[in-house]
Amino acid sequence: MNIKELFTMKRTERVFPVLNVLTFAGVIFALTLGAAWYWWALSFIVYALTMGFGVSATYHRLLAHKSYSTNRFLRNLGIFFGGIGGTGSAFAWVAVHRTHHRFSDKPGDPHDARVIPIWRQVTLAYGFDWKKFTVRDLASDKFVIFQHEWYFLILIAWAALLLAISPMLFLFGFIVPVWFQIWATSSSLILEHKFGYRSYETNDKAMNNWFNALTVWGEGWHNNHHHNPRNAKFGEKWWEVDLGYLFVKLVRH
Ligand SMILES: [Zn+2]
Ligand SMILES: [Zn+2]
Fold first, then answer.
1. Which residues, 6 or more positions from 60, have their beta carbon under 8 angstroms from its beta carbon?
2. 35: CA distance to ligand 2 center in Å?
3. From ligand 2's centre to the CA of 97, what distance in Å?
4. 100 Cα to the center of ligand 2, angstroms
5. Domain limits at 183?
6. pTM for this predicted structure
7. Of the residues 67, 70, 103, 208, which has the maximum number of CB atoms within 10 A of its CB?
8. Which ligand is closest to the CA of 55, given by its number?
């Protein structure tokens, strides 16, 4: 099976709605347990690693835009964490995101906030018919391609490992953060181009939105980001808190 087949995967269209429903049921169940605070703290820490370190610092700022550099171990660790957050492989993410920058708010934008409803954002984005030339630099990267080709298998193996260690670890270390990541990502793909304020007159509708910046680790300072995609720091004013940048500061060389 070739890589393109895997990425345009009809599979994604099937897997994401199932993951969405299962993790939602898991969150409702978790809420009924009256679990100790540290289980919720665990969910938060996992979400910091998957979305903050994984997707925001590594997938987005490092791989998609090359806005800083780090060593191979930390880069691959970030790719691993980005993957177990449940919203796709680094290869897919970078392809979709670079295409988004190219066609923002125009036909060809893979998560066009004007036409795609929130509940289909993640599913559609990753099932998008991407163009291979957008990720030529990653096509020969063995680690990135391995994660991409075996994405759902890695996700299932990781979940099974946590479940084998402890059902509570599985629930609060996987189900809860994955559910949150799916919805935080879906809502951010809408908010980033629809609601908020603009510091720069970019030739798209990118917005800065504080709520979005909090839920997705600084990604919500999206108008700043479209204005200068190579800047690793998305928050510019003192009150534009960019928690994802803290991970960049920790791992950059
Ligand atoms: Zn955008
Ligand atoms: Zn970007």
1. 93, 97, 219, 244
2. 37
3. 6
4. 8
5. 3-251
6. 0.92
7. 208
8. 2
